[in-house]
C-alpha cells in the first residue's frame, strides 16, 4: 500500500444502474486534480531517489529539491488535453488504484465523468458487489491513488460467466470486434469481473465475463516518467488491443440408449373382478399408474431425467410416445406398469 501522502481517503458512493451507464469512476474536478498532482509528485520523488541511490552529493540534493518544488516539469503529460478556448489543459483520463479492504484492490479509471461533491468517488454497483475478500457491507471510505503510468494492453483474454453469456456474445460479436468495449471500460486487470451492457433496440442485454489473462506492451500512457519494468497490475484497453473470448459451449446431452424389452403388466385400472379378488387373496397391492406415466423398478431407471420414449416391439407399427417415468421397488424387474 502506498504511503498516505500519495493517496486520498474518499467516501465511496455506489452508482445505481443508469440507462447509458459504463464502468468508469466519477470524481469531482478538484479531486481529479489533487490525485493527478499526487501521482506526479510520487513519480518525481521516485526518480529523484533513484538518482540519489547512485550518487550522494550537493548537486543531487539540489536536484531532489527542484523535483519536489516542480513536479510538473518531470515529463510531458499525455493525460492532459489542451483546451483551445481557455488556453489551458484539463485532465481527460486518470487510471486509479482503489483499496476497498485488507488485500482487496481494484483498478478503474476516470474518463471525464464528474460528480459535484469533493472527496467522493462514485463507482457503478456491478464493479464492487460480489468481490471476494470484502465484508457484506461495503466500506464507507476507500483509499484511492492515481497510477503514474499504465501499459497499453496488447492482448486480453476473457471468459463468459455462463453458457448464456457466451451465446449473447456470439449474437452481438460486433460489440467486441468493432471496439465498442472501449465505450464502457478502459482499465483491465486479471481476474476482473465485468458486466457489459449491450444495447438492443430500446432494451439492454447484460453479459458477465471474467478477465483471465492480460498482456501489456512496452508502450505506456503516463503522467510522469516512471519505471515501466515494475510488475504488471493493469493495462489500458486501446483500439489495437486484441480481445479474445474463450468459448463456453453447452455440454452435449447424454444420449440414453433404449432399454431391453419390458413386459407390460396391468395397473389397477386394467384389473377385472377376478384380478381384484386374486389381489385380496395374495395380499398383493394393486399399482396405480397415472395416465401418461410408466412405472418401472428403481434399478431399471438410474437416470435423473424423468421423461422417456416408449415404442412397441415386434410390430410393423412405428408408434412412439413420450411418457413420464416413475420408479417403485414394488414393480418386478424387467416389468413395466402403465
TrEMBL record:
GO terms for molecular function: ATP binding. Residues 57-71 have a biased composition (Basic and acidic residues). Residues 47-56 have a biased composition (Polar residues). GO terms for cellular component: peroxisome. Keywords: ATP-binding, Nucleotide-binding. Residues 154-247 form the Peroxisomal ATPase PEX1 N-terminal C-lobe domain. GO terms for biological process: peroxisome organization. The keyword Coiled coil does not apply. InterPro entries: CDC48_domain_2-like_sf, PEX1-N_C-lobe. Residues 47-78 are annotated as: Disordered. This is Peroxisomal ATPase PEX1 N-terminal C-lobe domain-containing protein.
Amino acid at each position: 500500500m502506498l504511503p498516505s501522502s500519495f493517496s486520498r481517503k474518499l467516501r465511496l458512493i455506489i452508482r445505481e444502474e443508469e440507462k447509458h451507464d459504463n464502468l468508469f469512476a466519477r470524481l469531482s474536478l478538484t479531486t481529479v486534480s489533487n490525485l493527478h498532482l499526487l501521482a506526479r509528485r510520487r513519480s518525481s520523488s521516485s526518480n529523484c531517489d533513484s538518482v540519489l541511490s547512485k550518487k550522494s552529493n550537493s548537486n543531487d540534493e539540489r536536484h531532489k529539491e527542484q523535483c519536489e518544488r516542480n513536479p510538473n516539469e518531470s515529463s510531458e503529460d499525455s493525460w492532459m488535453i489542451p483546451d483551445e478556448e481557455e488556453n489551458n489543459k484539463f485532465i481527460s483520463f486518470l487510471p486509479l488504484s482503489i483499496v476497498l479492504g485488507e488485500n482487496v484492490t481494484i483498478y478503474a479509471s476516470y474518463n471525464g465523468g464528474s460528480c459535484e461533491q469533493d472527496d467522493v468517488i462514485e463507482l457503478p454497483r456491478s464493479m464492487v458487489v460480489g468481490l471476494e475478500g470484502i465484508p457484506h457491507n461495503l466500506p464507507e471510505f476507500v483509499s484511492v491513488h492515481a497510477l503514474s503510468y499504465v501499459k497499453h494492453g496488447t492482448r486480453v483474454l476473457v471468459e463468459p460467466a455462463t453458457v448464456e453469456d457466451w451465446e449473447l456474445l456470439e449474437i452481438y460479436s460486433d460489440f467486441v470486434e468493432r471496439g465498442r468495449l472501449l465505450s464502457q471500460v478502459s482499465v483491465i486487470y486479471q481476474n476482473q469481473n465485468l458486466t457489459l451492457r449491450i444495447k438492443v433496440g430500446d432494451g439492454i442485454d447484460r453479459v458477465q465475463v471474467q478477465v483471465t489473462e492480460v498482456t501489456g506492451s512496452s508502450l505506456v500512457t503516463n503522467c510522469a516518467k516512471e519505471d515501466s519494468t515494475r510488475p504488471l497490475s493493469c493495462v489500458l484497453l486501446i483500439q489495437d488491443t486484441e480481445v479474445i473470448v474463450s468459448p463456453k459451449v453447452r455440454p452435449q446431452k447424454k444420449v440414453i440408449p433404449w432399454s431391453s424389452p419390458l413386459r407390460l403388466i396391468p395397473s389397477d385400472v386394467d384389473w377385472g373382478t377376478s384380478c381384484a379378488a386374486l389381489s385380496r387373496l395374495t395380499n398383493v397391492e394393486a399399482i396405480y399408474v397415472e395416465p401418461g406415466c410408466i412405472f418401472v423398478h428403481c434399478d431399471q431407471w438410474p437416470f435423473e431425467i424423468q421423461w422417456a420414449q416408449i415404442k412397441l416391439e415386434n410390430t410393423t407399427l412405428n408408434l412412439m410416445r413420450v411418457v413420464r417415468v416413475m420408479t417403485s421397488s414394488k414393480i418386478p424387474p424387467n416389468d413395466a406398469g402403465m
